[in-house]
Structure formats: structure tokens, C-alpha cells
Amino acid sequence: MPVVVYVLGLSIFGLGTTEFMIAGLLPLIADDLGVSVPAVGGLISAFAIGMVVGAPALTAASLRLPRKTTLIAALTLFIAGQVLGALAPTYALLLVARVVTAVATGAFWGVAAVTAVRAVTPDRTSRALSVLLSGLTVANVVGVPAGTWIGQWLGWRATFWAVAIVAVLSLVGVVVAVPRDSRETAVPRLRDELRTFTSARLWVALTTIVLYGGAVFGIFSYAAPLITDVAGMRESAVPAILFLFGLGAFFGNVIGGRVADRGILMNLHISFVALLATMVALGLAAGSAVAVVALLFTMGVTGYSAAAALNGRVFRLAEEAPTLASAVNTSAFNVGNTIGPWLGGTAIAAGLGFRAPIWVGVALLLGALTLTFVSRAMDARLRTNERRGELSGAGAGATP
Hints:
By secondary structure, the protein is mainly alpha-helical. The chain has 16 helices and no strands. The protein has helices at residues 3-20, 22-33, 37-61, 67-87, 91-118, 125-154, 156-177, 190-195, 200-220, 223-230, 238-260, 264-285, 289-304, 307-317, 322-352, 356-398.
């Protein structure tokens, strides 16, 4: 991998940490600002909304700028949002800071993915994307726990400052390592980028991402009560088990990134079937502490082994105009990350217990698996139509 891909991965580490770090700072922020814990939890939703809505809008607005300029601008805006959050005297201002950082994060993701893919040969697309995703998984494994620890010892505002420092280092790396767009590179046009969304195959791929994200994040969001109330373990065990999940996600992402380029849809078929089996086993054996520990780790491996392939599929379908598609791809993950916990919480509120999010996840993943076979059928039909067109063209050319 070129150095620039790892620089972008480091940037994603900082951006990913700020996305999830609020979960470990909820009581600290609530006490300091004099608001309820659920209100602080709304900062997580605000970030997701900022990613879903703001990221494509900002990406479209900056489409004609050089990619390096956009990356620098997005990181600068992100740093400003972090600093605003660290200094925010009120909840309302902190909410604004979260939305600003979310929009910057989404815009950076979209352009960074295109930059990483353009830096490698086509047969290494998924592997390059897996390096970016590794930044996100390391953020879950290391960044979020570290942010929680910093917040507990130095105050929650120190966590915002720490992420801002990481972002400054990333900014320096981007300035040094990211090459300027070559003069031969065509300037993207919004019309061309929007035209990619007329592809039914692209919409099927994006819907697959939504269902997949809802399945995985819906279960992960309620892992703590599953561990304590269903498996009967102590609360002190929760961080270690979630760390194992993150470790599994890291390994799964690395493995999936290396395998996906050999066959994206085959990777998705195998990963989803393995993840589905893991989820069903988790739902059936959640009363066993040993089973929960082993299966959450396995869920991290099998779940994230599909992540690079899901991203790679979108890039291949939007190869000629990928920037806006990449931003919408990021939004699709966040839509899933919003829908999954909401459906899981609804099932719990209905009195179905803390295993309910698992079965909700199974249903969502079955939908995602079905769509991978729909994608395969659509690809086969397209190839058939192309062959027929070539044959008819050849026949017409042979006619006197």
C-alpha cells in the first residue's frame, strides 16, 4: 500500500474516535452541562444525521475542488468542530459542534476513499479500502476506550482536545503525503456524479449496506445488557468483551480486504452466511457467558470481513463518477447504524427481552443476504445483454 493510504487511515482513526467517543462520556457531559443522559445520547444521533444529510451535500458543493484541497478543508473544519466542542459552555453549542464535525467527517470519508482507490491498481481496491476501515476499527478498539479514560481522568473536554491533536497530525500528513490532482485528471461534474444514481445495481448495493449496518450495529448497541442481564456477567467484564469484539472486527476487516478483490459478491455471500450463523448461535446461547464471549468475537470477525467488499462493490458500480457515490455510501452505513439500534430498542420496549435485538439483526441480515443474490442475478443479466449486443453488432457489420 502507498504511504498516502496509511495517512488517510490515520485520519479515519481520529474521525472514527469522535463518532463513538460520546458513549463513554455520557454521564460526565450530562453532569457538567446540567442535562439528562438521554439528552447527551442525542449527540450521537445528531452526528449520524449530520453524516447522512450533510456529507453528500458538502461533497457535492466541493466536487470541482482538487481532492487534496477538499481533504485539507474537511480536516480543518473537523478540527474547528472539535475545538468548538471542547470549549462549548452549553449543550446547544456542543450539539452544533457535533453536527459540524459530522459533516466534515462525511465529506472527508467520501474523498479519502476515492483518493485511496486512485492510489492503487484496480485489483487492490478492496484492500485499500480495508486500510481506511482499519482506522475505524482501531478507533473502536483503542480510540474510544482511550477517550473514555482521558475523560475520566482529565475531564470530558480533554477528550475533544486529544482528538483535535490527532486531527492536526493527520492534517500535516495529508499536506505532505497526498499528491495534487494531475492536470490530466478530469474535473468531476455534478451531472456525471448524479447520473450514477440511475443505476438500479447501485441502489441495491446501498440498500444492502443499510441492512447490514442495521444488523451489526443493532446488536452491538445492546451488547452490554446482553452480557450482564442475559449472560449473567459483571459490568466490569463489559469493556473487555467489547474490546474482543473490536479486535475481531479488526482481524475480519484485514482478512476481508485481502480476499474481497478476488470476488466481491462471493466474499459477501460467505461473510453474511457465517455472520448469520453466528447471530443465530448467539441468540440461542446468550445465557452462557463462555458462548457470549466467543460469539461476540466471532461476530466481529465475520461481520467486518464483509465491510471492504461492501465498499468495493459501490466503487466498482460508480467507477467513472465515484466521489458523490462514496459520500452516499458513508451515509448508507450511518442510516443502518441508526435504524438497527432503533428497531432493537423498539423490540426491547415491547417486552421481548435483551435477546430481541439479535433476532431483529437476523431478519435484517437475511434481507442483506438476499440482496447479494439479487446483485449477482443483475450482474449476470447485464453480461448477457452486453454479449447479445456485441453479437448483434457483429452480425450487422457482416451484412453487405
